[in-house]
Specification:
Layout: E1 2-6, E2 12-16, H1 21-26, H2 29-33, H3 37-53, H4 59-80, E3 84-85, H5 88-96
Helix pairs in contact: 3-4
């Protein structure tokens, strides 16, 4: 399920809601490619720390956990930066996933 978010100058981002398969398979790279450097760094540091402690196997633990939560984190940060749902359908989808949208 995807939602469309738009900021005040008309920049539109289409963002997937729910489980992030790309984060599951590729770890911190999707955040890096989205320009979300803060969360890319956090995911990388956690993957390295878990990998050191568990001889490499633990990196998958972080990927599984972030796969469930990363899209929601990314959407919330976009909303904090001033993006709003571009349609009522997007607003309903966000509400159904537990993401509250402030009025413009």
């Amino acid at each position: 399920m995807k939602v469309t978010l738009e900021n005040s100058i008309g920049l539109i981002k289409e963002v997937k809601v729910g489980f992030s398969w790309t984060t599951f398979f590729f770890g911190f790279f999707p955040a890096l490619f989205r320009g979300d450097l803060k969360w890319a760094a956090i995911m990388f540091i956690i993957a390295v720390a878990l990998g050191i402690v568990t001889a490499g196997i633990g990196t998958w633990i972080g990927s599984v956990i972030f796969a469930f939560i990363y899209n929601k984190i990314y959407i919330k940060e976009l909303l904090e930066k001033g993006y709003l749902p571009a349609s009522e359908e997007s607003k309903r989808k966000l509400a159904s996933c537990g993401i509250s949208v402030k009025a413009a």
